[in-house]
Specification:
Mean pLDDT: 84
Shape: globular
Number of helices: 1
Helix content: 10-25%
Number of domains: 1
Number of strands: 4
Low-confidence stretches: none
Strand content: 35-45%
Largest sheet: 4 strands, antiparallel
Length: 64
């Protein structure tokens, strides 16, 4: 989970509020909430099993 937090923190450039491991579609993902410089909370979902594809962590389109 630490790698996911570091990756999201450097990409989002915000303050990490929380991080948790969840199950989604039969996989374990890391869900990380970050507050950006405007005070908006963004939720990122990072799948450690798909790191070999070098994809960006997903973010939800609406604030949580």
């Amino acid at each position: 989970m630490g790698d996911s937090i570091r990756r999201v923190r450097s990409e989002a450039r915000g303050q990490v509020l929380s991080a948790e491991r969840m199950h989604m579609d039969g996989r374990e993902i890391n869900r990380i909430k970050v507050m950006d410089d405007r005070g908006r909370v963004r939720v990122y979902e990072d799948d450690p099993q798909q790191r070999s594809q070098a994809s960006r962590p997903r973010t939800r389109s609406r604030d949580d």
